[in-house]
């Protein structure tokens, strides 16, 4: 895996390359190569935006010479209308998007860091975050999310009993867990370690260590879904007044 310094050097070199291309205005690092450099490690990748003049977006999407001139690409996949997922020949992985200057104000992002800026963009104010465009993934009340988790357990166990194991895994180890994560900050003290506004599961083991210790029992996999469901139910009962009848039905199905 690439050393963090190599990742930052690669990003700087991409900025240098953009400096020689007409239409490029700003290179904005996001994620662990944005403002949150303290969490950058050998498992990080390059996440970045390139801001260009109006009319130049397709040029930078359709021609990746500005990347190839930095280091050859072994893989690239256009995963959105705005950009790609890429793998450089030396193993550095990245994801990027191209936006015209007037588009940036509508793009949800957080913790952006200006890596390179053209002289033409000196008067272009770049916000480090556009948080108001990011829908909240946290809930502020327990009732909805934890009852949703309970009903996920019930429905999922019924599907498991019917032989629909994959669907059961998703309901119990996916949807139910996701519902719990959306309100976990109301149940357990959260450690201050880079919460992610796009995914409650990111860095969960460091942010919620007590829950993290129990998570393995709640996610035992395809052939042990009933066991996972019971551990999830036990957890829910420890933090919330679970309806007794529904709890009994869930345990019957699990058995």
UniProtKB/TrEMBL annotation:
<protein>
    <recommendedName>
        <fullName>DUF4037 domain-containing protein</fullName>
    </recommendedName>
</protein>
<dbReference type="InterPro" id="IPR043519">
    <property type="entry name" value="NT_sf"/>
</dbReference>
